[in-house]
Amino acid sequence: MTRFLSTIASAGGHPGPYELALDPTRSTLDTARLVAQRAEAARIDALFVPDLLVFGAQGTIGAQEPLMFVAALSQVTSKAGLIATVSTTFHHPFNLARLFGTLDHLSNGRAAWNLVTSSIGEQNFGPGGLPSPEQRYARAAETIEVVNALWDSWKPGSLRLGPGGKAVLDTSLIKPVNFEGEFFSVEGPINIPPLPQGRPVLIQAGQSAAGIALGARYAEVVFTALATLADAHRFTSEIRAQAGALGRTQGPLIFSSFHATFGASESEAQRLVRERREAIDYEAGRALVADMLGGGVDLTEAKLDEPLPEVLIPDISGINRRRGRAEIFSRLIREGRTLRELIQAAQDTGHWSVAGTPEQLADAVEERFRAGVLDVLSLGGLADDRTHDFVVNGLLHELRKRGIVKDDYRGATLRSNLGLEEPT
Amino acid sequence: MSLHLALEVDGDGADVAALTAHVTAAEAAGFALVTIADSPLPPADGSVRIEAGVRAAYLSRRTTRIGLAPTLHASVTEPFHLATQLASLDHASLGRAAWVVGAESSAAAAATVGEPVLTGSDLRREIADVIDVARQLWDSWEDDAVIRDRATSRFLDPDRVHHVNFTGARFTVSGPLITPRPPQGQVVVIGADTLGVTSRLDIALVDTADTAAGLGELTERTALARADGAALVFADLPSADASLLRHLDGVVDGVRIRVADIPLVTDLLKTRPPAGPTLRDTLGLPRPANQFAVAG
């Protein structure tokens, strides 16, 4: 089968829509509806919503509960996949299996779960504190085992169409799961019928060593922040090697963030980047970089235009939150970057950031796609009229002209549109 | 006739087209709200169902006037998720969300999430805690917290967003909610009078048997529920007939019936006033003041 680049659009929660959120004539849902309709018209494969467990995380424009939000968006879409980001740290797998199973039913097979382990949120799910990364990833792995067992607990043929089109249930084909693990004890079976996709598409985010190990074992798609082509090569070969060692024939698809700055000319794009850099509050940026490094360092006295000393590189094993980010920023220090450069990188939190004309951005995308280190591209900015025009009529048009992005949806389910295998 | 009408619409399994048909028909007929039953356990009759909250979100823009009341079980759901889901349903439906407080507490239900079985006063306390924290979280953003001030590029006024710092018997929540205050201020909270939390309900549901003794008991329990502070009392009727409905008019504020009984009420519905735009408007419930708002 010809390999294509898939596309996923952010439907809300990204810092980008902050300016739009200031528009009193638009509600969050109105903006998301507009994005959903524009995404589907542009044949973008799926819509993505983040999970914000704490007020103030990633901006303070307010956020909706992701499963309810994408279920509401299912009404204004009929082709695009619906990706809800949900943490395994603060949910029980039985409830998660019911929620995502319901989403897959009512969207006719368009549901996907972006699995995160959360580095924040414990204050709203007390009284326990935030478990260590090791515990969070162990719980995530066990959660996946439980939800998969629950979704598989109705064997083929358990629900058949009987005389007069009435559904007939054969309860002898519905089996308990009897799961006993470190975190959960779940008898099952689940009380919802087999899902249109068998299982929702499993996407996973998290680039720490534990995150890569989890993704290599279970994820069908991994969401990544890979700032450079070298980062993308390193990550892709690592996770594919681990997946291959586990006997997986189809390694996870690489889904990369992409912070695009569009210009009608290269100089316009560069001017926009320059203006954004000039607007950075470098004093506030010191705290931001300290946070990226795990929060345990003090940068208030460090010189802006000198490389940071390696002594500031934190002991990763002592960091409880966002280890992957700390690893990225530690590497930047080792590469001799200045504090100013780190503060600039922190504005994009280590994401892949490219500025240029739509053709130049297409070149950057094509380079990674042809190198085999990019399978799914994240697209933002559809709510904004200017960016929407650049993304759809510029970048996507160019990528289609080059035969990289397919012209239309391939099938009815998200799984078929991403070219993923059916679960067995 | 002055009764509000609610319709229980669970029963279509995973067939969301059938569900949508029932709900849009109820809306066209003038029902105030639909309730959507749920349980972590399979229905006793061996049929199937899917989760109620996500079903309600799916209906949020396929309807325009009818209230949407999924059952979420306080006993098996994280309170913060529950409060956020209902707030999001209220935003998605532009102010038509309600919550039927579920308290599934059998050993089998508790086992689905590995929680201990709660009974008696422990169960009542847990339900009360979940309702209380949900109501506090819905108020954790004041109505005017969102200022959308373009001049200063400020979306909200942080002084008008509050921690709730809730400590219940079995959980704690700091808050605030991630979601702005629901359009109705507070989602309409519905629950059985037998839960023991009537003072916390907007609508108390009183079940009844269609017998003379049953009606006597209903009248008594309705008076008790009103005395406990329930704003409205609905009779919950597993089966209905026209004479029963006429009898209840003036005793209770509304009735909840099943799909099979819709033909009985279509004549009565012709006198209902138009609904909306919010469920609170339809029910004549005031939009509550925010418990965190400071005067001035």
From TrEMBL, chain A:
The keyword Metal-binding does not apply. SUPFAM superfamilies: Bacterial luciferase-like (SSF51679). Keywords: Flavoprotein, FMN, Monooxygenase, Oxidoreductase. Signal peptide: none annotated. One of its GO terms (molecular function) is monooxygenase activity. FMN binds at residues 51, 85, 137, 208. Residues 27-373 form the Luciferase-like domain. Coiled coil: none annotated. InterPro entries: Diverse_substr_monoxygenases (IPR051260), Luciferase-like_dom (IPR011251), Luciferase-like_sf (IPR036661), NTA_MOA (IPR016215). Pfam families: Bac_luciferase. PANTHER family: ALKANESULFONATE MONOOXYGENASE-RELATED (PTHR30011), C2H2 FINGER DOMAIN TRANSCRIPTION FACTOR (EUROFUNG)-RELATED (PTHR30011:SF16). NCBIfam families: FMN_nitrolo (TIGR03860). Belongs to the NtaA/SnaA/DszA monooxygenase family. This is FMN-dependent oxidoreductase (Nitrilotriacetate monooxygenase family).
Automatic annotation (TrEMBL), chain B:
It holds the Pfam family Bac_luciferase. One of its GO terms (molecular function) is oxidoreductase activity, acting on paired donors, with incorporation or reduction of molecular oxygen. Transmembrane segments: none annotated. Residues 14-200 form the Luciferase-like domain. Keywords: Flavoprotein, FMN, Monooxygenase, Oxidoreductase. PANTHER family: ALKANESULFONATE MONOOXYGENASE-RELATED, C2H2 FINGER DOMAIN TRANSCRIPTION FACTOR (EUROFUNG)-RELATED. This is Luciferase-like monooxygenase. It comes from Actinoplanes lutulentus.
